[in-house]
Hints:
Elements: E1 2-8, E2 15-17, H1 20-24, H2 36-52, H3 59-67, E3 72-78
Antiparallel strand pairs: 1-2, 1-3
Amino acid sequence: MEYAVVYYPNGQEMKYVGSVADYQDGGFADPVMMTKEEAEQLVADLDHYVRNEEQFSDRDAALWAYEHKEWGFGVEEFDV
Length: 80
Protein backbone atom coordinates (compact mmCIF):
# COMPACT_ATOMS: atom_id res chain seq x y z
CA MET A 1 0.00 0.00 0.00
CA GLU A 2 0.99 3.57 -0.62
CA TYR A 3 -0.53 6.69 0.86
CA ALA A 4 -1.04 10.33 -0.02
CA VAL A 5 -2.11 13.33 2.03
CA VAL A 6 -5.24 15.03 0.79
CA TYR A 7 -5.97 18.71 1.37
CA TYR A 8 -9.65 19.68 1.38
CA PRO A 9 -9.75 23.47 0.96
CA ASN A 10 -13.56 23.38 1.04
CA GLY A 11 -16.35 20.84 0.98
CA GLN A 12 -16.17 20.19 -2.77
CA GLU A 13 -12.53 20.27 -3.80
CA MET A 14 -9.50 18.15 -3.00
CA LYS A 15 -5.79 18.58 -3.67
CA TYR A 16 -2.75 16.53 -2.72
CA VAL A 17 0.22 17.74 -0.71
CA GLY A 18 3.60 16.23 0.06
CA SER A 19 4.83 18.92 2.45
CA VAL A 20 3.78 22.05 4.32
CA ALA A 21 5.26 24.05 1.43
CA ASP A 22 2.95 22.21 -1.00
CA TYR A 23 -0.02 23.23 1.17
CA GLN A 24 1.21 26.83 1.19
CA ASP A 25 1.39 26.70 -2.63
CA GLY A 26 -2.16 25.30 -2.97
CA GLY A 27 -1.49 21.60 -3.54
CA PHE A 28 -1.46 19.37 -6.62
CA ALA A 29 -3.98 17.50 -8.73
CA ASP A 30 -1.93 14.26 -8.56
CA PRO A 31 -1.09 12.37 -5.37
CA VAL A 32 2.34 12.50 -3.77
CA MET A 33 2.95 8.90 -2.72
CA MET A 34 4.53 8.05 0.63
CA THR A 35 4.46 5.50 3.42
CA LYS A 36 1.66 5.44 5.97
CA GLU A 37 4.03 6.75 8.66
CA GLU A 38 5.18 9.61 6.43
CA ALA A 39 1.57 10.52 5.61
CA GLU A 40 0.51 10.49 9.27
CA GLN A 41 3.52 12.63 10.22
CA LEU A 42 2.73 15.11 7.44
CA VAL A 43 -0.89 15.43 8.65
CA ALA A 44 0.46 16.12 12.16
CA ASP A 45 2.89 18.71 10.74
CA LEU A 46 0.10 20.36 8.75
CA ASP A 47 -2.17 20.44 11.79
CA HIS A 48 0.59 22.09 13.84
CA TYR A 49 1.22 24.62 11.07
CA VAL A 50 -2.47 25.53 10.75
CA ARG A 51 -2.98 25.87 14.49
CA ASN A 52 0.25 27.72 15.30
CA GLU A 53 1.81 29.42 12.28
CA GLU A 54 -0.74 30.01 9.50
CA GLN A 55 -1.78 33.63 9.17
CA PHE A 56 -5.49 33.84 8.37
CA SER A 57 -7.31 37.08 7.65
CA ASP A 58 -10.01 35.92 10.09
CA ARG A 59 -8.18 33.46 12.33
CA ASP A 60 -11.11 32.62 14.60
CA ALA A 61 -13.43 31.79 11.70
CA ALA A 62 -10.77 29.78 9.86
CA LEU A 63 -9.88 27.71 12.92
CA TRP A 64 -13.55 27.17 13.78
CA ALA A 65 -14.17 25.84 10.24
CA TYR A 66 -11.00 23.69 10.45
CA GLU A 67 -12.03 22.18 13.78
CA HIS A 68 -15.52 21.46 12.41
CA LYS A 69 -14.09 19.63 9.36
CA GLU A 70 -15.23 22.20 6.80
CA TRP A 71 -11.68 22.09 5.44
CA GLY A 72 -8.59 20.18 6.39
CA PHE A 73 -6.40 17.17 5.66
CA GLY A 74 -6.68 13.41 5.44
CA VAL A 75 -4.76 10.32 4.38
CA GLU A 76 -5.82 8.46 1.25
CA GLU A 77 -4.77 4.84 0.74
CA PHE A 78 -3.77 3.51 -2.68
CA ASP A 79 -3.56 -0.20 -3.50
CA VAL A 80 -0.68 -0.25 -5.97
